[in-house]
Design goal:
Strand content: 15-25%
Number of strands: 15
Oligomer: single chain
Largest sheet: 7 strands, mixed
Helix content: 40-55%
Number of helices: 12
Length: 382
């Protein structure tokens, strides 16, 4: 073999040797990569609970839907990325309700809050078709294995507003703009009247029905009608600031409703009867997240639980009225007083609750009458 041939052979063998070493190293690294690790892989993050709210009015109304949306935002603040919330506003009661609820289910929401009385039948129907979804209905009375009812005892802070109205009225006539003649609204009208009569037994409360939850022009028209008939202090069971603003424009007095409306009432604002829904919403979401949520439940909270209150009282309210409000509120909290304690009669004089009897939720859920002192009629409910 020539020197050149031996040199080429040596170089070739060296190259093959280097290639073999590289292959062995690569195999070794593959085996190391494939070797099992002593550290367990990180668990995948839990999927966020998708929860939806349905509102009968616009969230910017500063009333009912606005108050519920404050509760939704409180849920977001409390649970962070554990919950993903959404809402649909201005949903008409009826067939549109069912369409919206089904769409929210199809979007993957596993918890749905319906925040108006008229949503009840549609929610119940959809709940029966989707047992894996949890439904919560505000102000209703029908439940199911996957549907609960929750409510606020507005009649408690409405009674407190009546105490103030009784002190502030100069004409002895108060006004109330009603939405629909259903028990929850009739409760509030009667409670407002009883509160005022605890101060002035001969006070009258005139009622005009707007037949809507939210319609500022109709609410304004109803308020103006009441003031034209002599009412000088107004309250409403509708969702906008229209009644309060109409009273301010006319130089009369009024209350905010559902949420703090002090910013809209000017000199007319005496206080706002509010509901803080955040307590119930946070409780419910927590139960869904930790697996303790149960259906067929009815929850009604009020002043004792911090869900209802009369806030932002005007400086023009006399000390005597403030003291009376504080006294009754304290008794509501300790359970020694509630609004509907017998004897209670209707406007015709018929006894509806016997002396010494405290009304229960069943009785209050069937109120279909005005107490003496309320002027107006009760049309057939829709």
């Amino acid at each position: 073999m020539t020197p050149d041939l031996r040199k080429r052979t040596f170089i070739k063998l060296a190259a093959l040797s280097a290639l073999g070493s590289a292959s062995l190293a690569a195999c070794s690294k593959k085996e190391e990569a494939a070797a099992p690790s002593d550290t367990a892989p990180a668990a995948a993050p839990a999927e966020a609970l998708k929860a939806a709210w349905i509102y009968v009015g616009p969230v910017g109304s500063a009333g009912w839907s606005f108050a519920h949306d404050l509760g939704r935002k409180a849920v977001e603040a409390e649970f962070g990325d554990k919950v993903k919330t959404t809402f649909v506003e201005s949903v008409p009661e009826g067939a549109d309700t069912e369409r919206v609820v089904r769409d929210l289910v199809n979007q993957g929401n596993k918890l749905i809050f319906g925040t108006s009385f008229g949503f009840m039948e549609a929610m119940l129907k959809v709940a029966q078709d989707h047992p894996d979804v949890k439904f919560e209905h505000a102000t209703g009375y029908k439940t199911a294995a996957n549907m609960n009812v929750y409510d606020s005892r507005f009649y408690q802070d409405t009674y407190l507003a009546g105490i103030i109205a009784g002190h502030m009225t100069k004409t002895g006539t108060l006004g109330f703009v009603g939405s629909f003649p259903i028990p929850e609204v009739l409760r509030n009208i009667n409670a407002f009247t009883l509160g005022a009569q605890s101060v002035k037994p001969d006070v009258k409360v005139r009622v005009v029905w707007a037949n809507t939850w939210y319609d500022p022009p109709k609410e304004t028209e109803a308020a103006q009608s009441l003031m034209n008939s002599g009412a000088d202090v107004l309250l409403q069971n509708t969702d906008s600031t229209a009644v309060l603003q109409a009273a301010n424009n006319a130089g009369k007095l009024a209350f905010g409703w559902d949420s703090d409306m002090s910013a809209f009432g000017g000199e007319a604002h005496l206080g706002s009867a509010i509901a803080d829904w955040s307590h119930y919403y946070k409780k419910t979401v927590k139960e869904v997240l930790d697996g303790t949520w149960k259906g067929n439940q009815v929850t009604r909270w009020g002043v004792p639980e911090g869900q209802n209150d009369l806030v932002k009282l005007s400086d023009k309210i006399p000390a005597e009225a403030r003291a009376k409000v504080d006294e009754i509120k304290s008794k509501m909290k300790d359970g020694s007083f509630d609004v509907f304690n017998g004897p209670i009669s209707d406007a015709s004089g018929k006894e509806r609750l016997a002396a010494g009897v405290r009304a229960n939720d069943e009785w209050m859920g069937k109120i279909d009458f005005f107490v003496p002192g309320v002027e107006g009629n009760i049309p057939a409910s829709k």
